[in-house]
Specification:
This protein is an all-alpha fold and 421 residues long. It is built from 15 helices and no strands. Helices cover 80% and strands 0% of the residues.
């Protein structure tokens, strides 16, 4: 299992490098205002994706071990089409997305939703390498086409970003279809019932996505707040800062992807708990130095990389760092509860984070500006982490200090032989 984690971290590390290169290109050539426009567009795609994921998100990973893959794909695809053709118009109606790009949002959401559902099925099959190939393809091609349109052809506009996404998503979908087609066929022992399957999608899938919607508020509420209160240029600066701090999340995202894939295929409760504990400590141990490195990079380096619009990142980094560190463990707890069907616990944790993020953000935005976004986001993450830690300890009657890592324990954290199936 540790080999799979390393491979996933490497693939997500490559993805992070591509995303960093994308960040450099867009910040350098589009400026703070262009980055703000891009942030709003990408946020629109993310919102549509969250609703699509009621049928095509983690619920597919949860159901794949027990249900026919073809039926899962058909039902998920039908839902994706419905959501892609309706949600963008709702976002435009409520002035949450620019009307000029509405049909681009429809098309890109439909393609990306198809990619996501195939990736989650592969996770459910524990086909981690194929899932990683799809992720790397998406990151590499999006960066490549951005380089072509913006740097080579010199089209300095948000339309270049949209065109790059069209080409990238189309190629990635082709790779995803090939990956799922080449995977060995398997038979399901579960008696198939469309009605029962749809019930699972709406019950468990809705719970999971309500949690993700709530988490999206924690992640991105401050985007809308900054855009409305300060403007697109300020949002551009804030979005670049959050994108940089989120680079360290490749560690916890890589570990949690393996964790969830393995967890839904484990039947032993004690093993699930020990797996969550061990991977939580691993995530914490690897994330801390990554955040530390990011914090010690001088402001001048960022100004040189991203241009004159982007200065004085340090206060924003410091405000986001504590939450980013705690999120490295929160993500593992979140996937643990999802893997055992306790999605309401995750939802309650996210709501706690929502209340903190919204209240702090609104109260502080007028007095301290963009910094309010970082503080509100970090406090929201902290609230979510504390709630899930309490619930995890209470459910399994664990001591409060189990997350403490001793010097002797460091040597054994990376030994995962117990969890090989």
């Amino acid at each position: 299992m540790f080999r799979k984690i390393v491979e996933t971290i490497l693939s997500k590390g490559f993805t992070a490098l591509c995303n960093l290169f994308t960040l450099l290109i867009t910040a350098k050539y589009l400026g703070a205002h262009g980055r703000g426009e891009m942030a709003i567009f990408v946020l629109g795609v993310s919102i549509v994706g969250i609703i699509q994921n009621i049928f095509s998100g983690s619920i597919l990973t949860y159901l794949t071990p027990n249900y026919p893959i073809r039926n899962l794909i058909v039902l998920s695809s039908m839902w994706n089409i419905l959501i892609s053709c309706t949600t963008p118009f709702i976002l435009v109606y409520f002035d949450l997305f620019p009307a000029i790009y509405i049909y681009d949002l429809v098309n890109l959401s439909l393609i990306l939703g198809s990619i996501t559902l195939l990736q989650n099925i592969l996770l459910g099959l524990e086909a981690i390498n194929k899932q990683n190939i799809i992720e790397v393809t998406k990151a590499f091609t999006s960066t490549l086409f951005l380089l072509v349109f913006i740097v080579i052809f010199r089209f300095y506009s948000i339309q270049s970003v949209i065109d790059a996404l069209y080409w990238s998503y189309a190629i990635t979908l082709g790779v995803a279809v090939i990956c799922i087609a080449l995977h060995p066929r398997r038979t399901s022992n579960t008696l198939f019932s469309t009605r029962k399957l749809v019930h699972y999608f709406f019950s468990f899938g809705t719970q999971m996505q309500l949690n993700n919607i709530s988490q999206m508020i924690n992640y991105r509420f401050c985007y809308y707040l900054i855009e409305k209160k300060i403007g697109l240029s300020a949002l551009g600066i804030f979005s670049v800062t959050t994108s940089l701090i989120e680079v360290v999340w490749i560690i916890c995202k890589s570990i949690s992807a393996i964790h969830y894939s393995k967890s839904v295929n484990l039947n032993n409760t004690n093993q699930r708990v020990r797996l969550t504990q061990q991977l939580s400590k691993m995530s914490l141990l690897l994330t801390f130095p990554a955040i530390l490195v990011l914090l010690i990079i001088p402001n001048d380096v960022f100004s040189w990389l991203f241009g004159k619009d982007f200065t004085n990142f340090k206060p924003l980094f410091i405000s986001l760092a504590p939450g980013a560190l705690l999120l490295a463990v929160f993500t593992l707890f979140n996937h643990h509860f999802s893997g055992i069907g306790k999605n309401m616990i995750n939802l309650k944790a996210s709501i706690v984070g929502n209340i903190i993020t919204i209240c702090v953000g609104i109260a502080a935005i007028d007095s301290i500006g963009m910094l309010a976004g970082g503080i509100a986001t970090s406090l929201g993450y902290s609230g979510m982490f504390i709630y899930l830690l309490i619930q995890f300890n209470r459910m399994y009657q664990l001591p409060l200090n189990w997350l403490r890592i001793s010097g002797r324990e460091v040597k054994t954290i990376f030994d995962l032989k117990e969890f090989q199936l």
